[in-house]
Design brief:
Helix content is about 80%, strand content about 0%. It is mainly α. The radius of gyration is 28 Å and the shape is elongated. The protein starts with a helix and ends with a helix.
Length: about 140
């Protein structure tokens, strides 16, 4: 049987381990990763909502310009309700921004929308899609 002194001596390495400041940080990277993932997800959601607002503004302009040309609205899928699922909505918006430049003449004339506007919006959609798959 060990004496109290011998038992205390066997605990010294464990006490040193617990006293070591590095031990306190063992769980920290995991928490930092979780916090970072949360921030990334929150930022993506903010960017996604901003893209949806921009899309709604642009589609309102397109609907206004082509209100009497239903075939254009149909070709751009603006005669449908936009999907609510984020992945489906991103595909829907990508389709719109890819095809709307074909009808840009009237949009440029009425609202001053240049092809660069659509290209920039498409880049933003692609960035959201890429970020979505990296999460």
């Amino acid at each position: 049987m060990m004496s109290d002194q011998q038992f205390a001596e066997t605990l010294i390495p464990f006490k040193n381990l617990l006293d070591n400041k590095k031990t306190e940080k063992v769980g920290q990277p995991l928490m930092e990763q979780h916090s970072l993932a949360y921030c990334v997800k929150a930022q993506w959601q903010t960017d996604f909502q901003s893209a949806q607002r921009t899309y709604q503004e642009y589609t309102a302009l397109v609907r206004s310009a082509y209100q009497y040309e239903r075939h254009v609205l149909s070709e751009l899928h603006l005669n449908q309700v936009a999907p609510t699922d984020p992945d489906e909505w991103l595909d829907y918006a990508r389709f719109f921004y890819t095809n709307v430049p074909s009808y840009n003449a009237l949009l440029d004339q009425q609202f001053g929308l240049k092809p660069e506007v659509w290209a920039q919006a498409l880049v933003e959609i692609h960035a959201l899609i890429s970020a979505r798959y990296q999460q």
